[in-house]
Amino acid sequence: MAPTAVEKLLALLFWAAVGLLFAVFRVLSRPNAAAPVRKLPPVANPLLLLSATQLAKKIRRREVSSVEVVQAYIDRIQDVNPLINAVIKDRFDAALQEAAQVDKLIEEETDGEEVLEDRLPLLGVPLSVKSSYAFQGMPFTSGLRSRSGVVASVDAPPLTLLKKAGAIPLVTTNTSELCMWLESHNHLHGITNNPYDLERIPGGSSGGEGSLLGAAGSVIGVGSDIGGSIRIPAFFNGIFGHKTTSAKGVVSSENQYPPSSGRHKEYLSLGPMCRYAEDLKPMLKIMAGPNAHMLSLNASVDLKKLRFFTIPHDSGSVWTNAVSEELMEVQRKVVERLEADLGVRVQEVCFPELSHSFQIWDTYMRLPDDEGNPPTSFSKLMGEPGRPAWPAWELLKRTVGKSDHTVAAIGLGLMEWTEASAPSQSTVQMKERLQKKVDELLGTDGVFLYPSHPRVAPRHHHPLFRPFDFAYTGILNTLGLSVTQCPLGLGEEGLPLGVQVVAGRLQDHLSLEVALFLEKAFGGWREPGSPATNADGAEQAS
Ligand SMILES: CCCCCCCC/C=C\CCCCCCCC(N)=O
């Protein structure tokens, strides 16, 4: 699968042009060295350091009231949001009223704690919601200026299920424009910052969720992922995120904006994002509702009996950056811990087809659905009803600061013009070969480790100059696998490290179990802004 001479030449020209543009960007956007470095305030309230599972238990036992927990999160959001800009809109007053009703219900409950746990497992626990989910009464904009003022009139099904389980939504959070970029920036709600370094990106498209969770402004949240939109923000913000097996609607993707079309329904996965690994499984169980049985979430998993593999990189794509040494090193440490603690052998494997991850993802994203309906074009989604946007015109307008769209969205619109009308047969064959190899490797008891991204959280706008690095996550959507993004401590610059834990289709219980192990072994989420975390830049990964 070595690149052809033509591909090498194209890549050379592309990277030379990008290098030039980047040099110009650096000159124009030189940071003000004299500006004080702003940091998040440390977490003062110990309630913010408990998992949703523990909070729900304490609320049920009346050791703490739901009002106290909700108020603690409101206070934290008010402290951190001016720095991270993760929240689009809050509903604090309504949430406090709902929390008071929860406390009253518990006060009057006579059926006992277990019945309550069974019926309402998240009773009284605060929740944050990505704004691509319809959330009744809240903005439903997907970062599009033309949708300013659009308010959802219903709840998306997974949100309905979480509310039914007793969770109390506090806020809706920012995304990239049309949820299709790895930086959460749009010209309606602004730019969201990474809580570990405000000059860096929180990832996207569920970047508002990632940032707020990383900042301890939320304990559980929900995201969506068609190319990495749960896992990239989970990685950059040091939290857990689960991309559910992509099998048409295990977790319903109804009432999302943009709505999925073409093959997107098959690759879009909705799933939980959270700070504590023990919340992943209960959340997913709730979000999947009647389909939860498809994921074997109740099956017990003996990690010692699993087969483990590690894939250190994408076999040398000419379009992605090389995986940094600190990320390679932390993945090696995971291998060592698995081998030492579980007595398993972790085998290194390599799939040359991964070097074409971007081409495979891109090709399959453009395919029609089973009825032959192609996906809605990006330019159409960018425009207004009946009036698609003209990306070239938008680019001209952007140069004079007059476009409603971000450079990333305009770039994606322009890229559509370069696409051939028929998919490349060699790419389709390559994907089929890769799918077969991966399915055989994983079976129903295999798990592999794969880098989440080649680098830790980049500085704002830098992904424009490395647009294909998301292929490390995107390829796993096309392959339809279950993937849990796990944090692994902080690296040299005080930024979160992590890895993707990948299991076969519908084997979500396996990657979720490995996440619990890795949280114990590596310490899970670390508080940004705490003196312990920030001493000399970082607490190193164990
Ligand atoms: C200047 C803009 C660059 C244009 C070229 C872009 C080429 C890359 C193509 C697609 C990037 C998609 C990024 C997807 C990130 C996650 C999406 C998701 N919702 O899961």
From TrEMBL:
Domain annotation Amidase: ranges: 68-510
Species assigned in the record: Tetraodon nigroviridis (Spotted green pufferfish)
Pfam families according to UniProt: Amidase
TM segment ranges: none
Catalytic residues, chain numbering: 130, 205, 229
SUPFAM superfamilies, sorted: Amidase signature (AS) enzymes (SSF75304)
Lineage: Eukaryota, Metazoa, Chordata, Craniata, Vertebrata
Superkingdom, natural source: Eukaryota
Similarity comment: Belongs to the amidase family.
Descriptive protein name: Fatty acid amide hydrolase 2b
Gene Ontology cellular component terms for the protein in this record: endomembrane system
InterPro entries for the chain: Amidase_CS (IPR020556), Amidase_dom (IPR023631), AS_sf (IPR036928), FAAH2 (IPR052739)
